[in-house]
C-alpha cells in the first residue's frame, strides 16, 4: 500500500503548471475541500497513532511499526496535498524527497542498529 | 515595478510565472531534502542515547502526554491554515491570504509558548538540564533545534507580511509566500516524527 502510494507520486510530468485538469480560476474560486479533507485525515491519523500507543495493547515492535507507518502516511499526505510536491518540477522534487527520506532512514535505523550492541553492559 | 510588464498566464500560479522564481522553489525543495537529513542525524543521536538517563529521570518519568498533545494539535492545525493561505494566494485574494497567514503565525506562537513552558517545567520543576544525562542532551538538542526552526519561521513570516503590505502580489512576493508555506509544512512533518519517536515511544515503549 505504501509502495503503491509512493509509486503513484512518481508518475507525474515535470511540466511547470498545476494539475492540468484544473483551471486555476475555477479551482480557486471554490472552497478548497481537498485541504479540509487533508486536515481531517491528519487529525484521524494522529488519533489512530494515539490509540496504537496508549490503548491497543499490541507488542512493542508492533506499536512502533504501526506508529511509524502512520507517521510516514501523514508525511506523504502533507507533501502531496499541502505542499504540492508534484507541481512545478514535480519529478525532481518527489525524487529528492524520496532520496532524503531514504537517507534519513538509513542514518537513523543504521545508527540505532550499530549502537545496539553492548549497550546493556552499562 | 519590473514585474508589471510581465504577461501573466492565468493558468499558471503567480509564484511559478517566472523562471527565476520556479528555480528558487526547486532550490528550496533541495534545501528541505538537506534539512530532512540534518534532522535525521539528531534523531539518530537521540535514539542511540535514549537508554542512558544516568542519574536523571528516564523519558517515561519525565514526559507528560497533555502538553505534547496540545502542541501536536496546534502545529497540525497551523499546517492546515498554512495550506489555506496558499490556496488564497493562488486565488489572488490578499485579504483572506493574510488572515490565514496570521492564523498560522498565531498557532505557531501558541506551539512555541507550549514548548517554552514544557522546557521550563523540566528545568525548573524537575531540576534537569542539557548536562544531566546523555538522554537529555539528545532530547534538548533535537527538540530545541525544531523549536529554533519554528522561531525562525515566525520571524521570517513577519518579514514577508511586511513586504506583502508594501509590494502587494508580484511573482516575487508570491514565491516568498509559497516558500515559507513549504518551510512551515516541513516543520510539521519533523514534529510528527518527534511526536512519534521521542514522546510516544518514550512514554509507552
TrEMBL record, chain B:
<feature type="transmembrane region" description="Helical">
    <location>
        <begin position="98"/>
        <end position="119"/>
    </location>
</feature>
<dbReference type="Pfam" id="PF00510">
    <property type="entry name" value="COX3"/>
</dbReference>
<keyword id="KW-0560">Oxidoreductase</keyword>
<feature type="transmembrane region" description="Helical">
    <location>
        <begin position="26"/>
        <end position="47"/>
    </location>
</feature>
<feature type="transmembrane region" description="Helical">
    <location>
        <begin position="139"/>
        <end position="162"/>
    </location>
</feature>
<dbReference type="InterPro" id="IPR013833">
    <property type="entry name" value="Cyt_c_oxidase_su3_a-hlx"/>
</dbReference>
<keyword id="KW-1133">Transmembrane helix</keyword>
<protein>
    <recommendedName>
        <fullName>Quinol oxidase subunit 3</fullName>
        <ecNumber>1.10.3.-</ecNumber>
    </recommendedName>
</protein>
<dbReference type="GO" id="GO:0019646">
    <property type="term" value="P:aerobic electron transport chain"/>
</dbReference>
<keyword id="KW-0812">Transmembrane</keyword>
<dbReference type="InterPro" id="IPR024791">
    <property type="entry name" value="Cyt_c/ubiquinol_Oxase_su3"/>
</dbReference>
<dbReference type="GO" id="GO:0004129">
    <property type="term" value="F:cytochrome-c oxidase activity"/>
</dbReference>
<comment type="similarity">
    <text>Belongs to the cytochrome c oxidase subunit 3 family.</text>
</comment>
<keyword id="KW-0472">Membrane</keyword>
<dbReference type="GO" id="GO:0016491">
    <property type="term" value="F:oxidoreductase activity"/>
</dbReference>
<keyword id="KW-1003">Cell membrane</keyword>
<dbReference type="GO" id="GO:0042773">
    <property type="term" value="P:ATP synthesis coupled electron transport"/>
</dbReference>
<dbReference type="InterPro" id="IPR000298">
    <property type="entry name" value="Cyt_c_oxidase-like_su3"/>
</dbReference>
<feature type="transmembrane region" description="Helical">
    <location>
        <begin position="182"/>
        <end position="202"/>
    </location>
</feature>
<feature type="transmembrane region" description="Helical">
    <location>
        <begin position="67"/>
        <end position="86"/>
    </location>
</feature>
<dbReference type="InterPro" id="IPR014246">
    <property type="entry name" value="QoxC"/>
</dbReference>
<dbReference type="InterPro" id="IPR035973">
    <property type="entry name" value="Cyt_c_oxidase_su3-like_sf"/>
</dbReference>
<dbReference type="GO" id="GO:0005886">
    <property type="term" value="C:plasma membrane"/>
</dbReference>
<comment type="function">
    <text>Catalyzes quinol oxidation with the concomitant reduction of oxygen to water.</text>
</comment>
Amino acid at each position: 500500500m505504501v509502495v503503491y502510494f509512493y509509486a503513484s507520486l512518481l508518475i507525474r510530468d515535470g511540466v511547470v503548471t498545476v494539475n492540468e485538469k484544473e483551471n486555476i480560476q475555477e479551482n480557486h474560486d471554490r472552497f478548497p475541500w481537498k485541504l479540509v479533507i487533508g486536515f481531517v485525515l491528519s487529525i484521524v491519523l494522529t488519533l489512530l497513532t494515539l490509540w496504537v500507543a496508549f490503548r491497543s495493547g499490541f507488542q512493542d515492535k508492533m506499536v512502533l511499526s504501526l506508529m511509524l507507518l502512520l507517521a510516514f502516511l501523514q508525511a506523504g499526505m502533507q507533501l502531496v496535498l499541502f505542499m504540492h510536491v508534484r507541481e512545478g518540477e514535480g519529478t525532481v522534487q518527489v525524487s529528492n524527497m524520496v532520496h532524503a527520506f531514504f537517507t534519513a532512514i538509513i542514518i537513523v535505523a543504521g545508527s540505532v542498529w550499530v549502537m545496539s550492541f553492548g549497550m546493556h553492559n552499562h | 515595478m519590473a514585474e508589471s510588464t510581465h504577461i501573466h498566464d492565468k493558468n499558471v500560479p503567480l509564484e511559478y510565472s517566472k523562471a527565476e522564481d520556479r528555480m528558487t522553489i526547486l532550490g528550496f525543495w533541495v534545501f528541505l531534502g538537506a534539512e530532512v537529513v540534518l534532522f535525521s542525524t539528531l534523531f539518530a543521536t537521540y535514539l542511540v542515547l535514549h537508554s542512558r538517563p544516568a542519574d536523571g529521570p528516564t523519558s517515561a518519568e519525565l514526559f507528560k502526554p497533555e502538553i505534547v498533545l496540545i502542541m501536536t494539535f496546534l502545529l497540525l492545525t497551523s499546517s492546515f491554515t498554512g495550506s489555506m493561505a496558499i490556496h488564497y494566494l493562488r486565488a489572488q485574494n490578499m485579504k483572506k491570504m493574510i488572515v490565514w497567514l496570521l492564523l498560522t503565525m498565531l498557532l505557531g506562537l501558541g506551539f512555541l509558548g507550549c514548548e517554552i513552558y514544557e522546557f521550563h517545567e523540566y528545568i525548573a520543576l524537575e531540576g534537569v538540564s542539557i548536562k544531566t544525562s546523555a538522554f537529555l542532551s539528545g532530547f534538548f538538542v533535537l527538540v530545541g533545534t525544531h523549536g529554533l526552526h519554528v522561531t525562525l519561521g515566525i520571524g521570517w513570516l513577519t518579514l514577508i507580511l511586511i513586504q506583502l503590505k508594501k509590494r502587494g502580489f508580484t511573482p516575487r512576493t508570491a514565491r516568498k509566500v509559497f516558500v515559507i508555506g513549504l518551510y512551515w509544512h516541513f516543520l510539521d512533518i519533523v514534529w510528527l516524527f518527534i511526536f512519534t519517536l521521542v514522546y510516544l515511544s518514550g512514554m509507552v515503549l
